[in-house]
Specification:
Helix 4 packs across helix 5. The protein is globular. The chain is built from 14 helices and no strands. The chain is mainly alpha-helical.
Amino acid sequence: MADAKDKMYKYRQEISQIPIPRAWFHTVIMTKDSLATLTASDMAACVAYSDFTPSPESFKRILIDTIRQMMYVSGETGEPSVETTSIIEDIVRQQVIELLRNCTELASRRGSKSISTNDLIFQIRHDQAKVSRLRTFLSWKDVRKNIKDSDDKGADADLAAGDDPGNVAGPVDEAAKKNKKAKVGLPWEPASFFNVEVPERDDEEDDEEEESNYITLQRLRKADDRTRAMTREEYVTWSEYRQASFTWRKGKRFREWAGFGIVTDSKPSDDIVDILGFLTFEMVQTLTEMALKAKEQEDTARALNGGDAASLQQQQGSTKKRKHQHGLFDPPSEGRTPVEPRHVQEAFRRFQQRPKKTRAMLNLTRIAEKTPLNIF
């Protein structure tokens, strides 16, 4: 046991100069066969169960592994290279910095030094489906917070009732109303222009929710198709990877990584950090899906146009053979290569394309066209 502990300390010192906490030894070493099997996922698990702050180098490794997990959940079944995950990290960080810069400018226009949650949501207002998913995320977060507060108050009431036998617990209607999922209102919506608020209906769904539900159902359908043939161990890994986050138990390093204190002087609240965590997951997922689509188009074009000379001669001869095209329900091909950096760059280029109606006719002028970064 002493030798294993000494080896663990030596391994930990190679990763970071921070002394290893006791949680490292008890939560990781006891579940590993050897020190060689330690990965960045184990480091992230130790961060979740301990109170120490990882060094920038350790946080870099944890972040790369987090991106790899998010890519796996988004449909990447291969093992992406470090270069691919590093490019995704740079793109996501660039997006977050642009978000904070725009939010800071928006806050300064209204005379405030701190950014709010509405400033962040305003930056993605054109993507109605994403706004709807974010509002649902914030609504359920508020429900969990209210339930926790009501449980704490209920425990105090039970203690008070135990001291006084005549004290009987009151109705729970008020607590039930607080625990109901409330809709997050936005100041630029038409409903906020009126003094009287229209009561909500349980069976009412707007177009934004329908579009959000459609995208969510599509992703759930893809996830169901992937997990249907998984073993128990594979599904456990899948479930763990779905919990990957840039911000969970990484608040301090994430603030430094995002540029708080440099890009903006505003001190982020817990809600802002949670929103950024939600948006970063969406960015990685959207970027991975587009990169997979670009790779699929490249593979299809290569299969149709880049065939070998023998197949080309056969097509020109009397016995013409049509190439087999994979159908919708065909199994995936063996030995599929993972997404490469060029696919990620192509996906980013597609997200930065602007429609012609948003471009000004500046061909005969010397005015340089300013193209701000698109937030996806």
